[in-house]
Amino acid sequence: LELPIMEIIIVVLLIAALVLYHKPATINMITAVLENFHMKWDARSYMLSYAKVLPMIGMFFLVSACTGSTFKMATPEGLYDAGVKHLNKEEYGKALALFEKAVKAGSADAMSDIGWMYQHGKGVKPDFQKAMYWYERAVKGGSMAAMSNIGYLFDEGLGVEEDNDVAMRWYLKSAKAGNDAAANNAGWMYQHGEGVGQDYEKALMWYKKAANAGNSYAMNNMAWMYEKGQGVDVDFEKAMEWYTKAADGGNMEAVNNIGWMYEQGEGVPQDYDKALVWYNKAAAGGNTSAMENIARLYEEGLGVEKDEEKAAEWFEQAEKASKQSE
Predict the structure, then answer these.
(1) Around 132, how many Cα atoms within 13 Å sit in the side-chain half-sphere?
(2) What is the pTM of this model?
(3) What local confidence, expressed as pLDDT, does residue 41 receive?
(4) CA–CA separation, 2 vs 15, rounded Å?
(5) Quick check: 174 and 144 in contact, CB under 8 A?
């Protein structure tokens, strides 16, 4: 029996759909479509065959759209991306279920994110040992994020003995593979001499790599080095430039630092009003340093009328926020 090439393509696509996404409704639909190919394959029945087959295929895709199922959803990447969407919405149960399916399909990124959930106790009981287990599995699958996360566990001594040397090795391995978070962490280690000899030049190099990849933490850290003259000449203009870029990226620490520069008149005219605006913005984003800075302005009467009661309120708010973040 010779099948026209289009029929062969249709059969292959439908079988692929069956393999990738095998709900009962899909199976029944595909079975019905395939049964149409038992018809005679002569010229007279050719159009009749298509007249029946094509609507069935259209119905399959319609059902897929209505039920939220797509071919992509059934792939490791599709399952992982769907899990990330739920994770971002703090729907941890749904996220974990999708990550577990993605893991079965071979997603190293999903393994890393399951590790992250155990590390931070999101939807599961905090368990650093399980976090390490999943990170190690993810690393075997080539996850750069997992490499960096293992480094962080050693850096902070979470579930393992604190070891800055080991942490730095993992950060560098991940950073060299292109992970911007790891590049920022490597820069931090060089800046502060943790796990390596203090080296501002290398710190700045790694911060720049991470910043150029869009990492707002690295932008803020690099701005700090320009503000304080660490490894470079003091340059308030460059500091403000990088603080602003970091703030545009949603980094509340950078927002607070911009407020500080206005308060101190570093690279800009001293302006307590603008300082307070930036401090308030950072405080609204949960930055405790900004809350303390607002308290201090009221305590000392800088740009505002001296108000010890308001100062006390802001100091108390900062203390509560600090405890909640622990």
Answers:
(1) 13
(2) 0.74
(3) 38
(4) 19
(5) yes
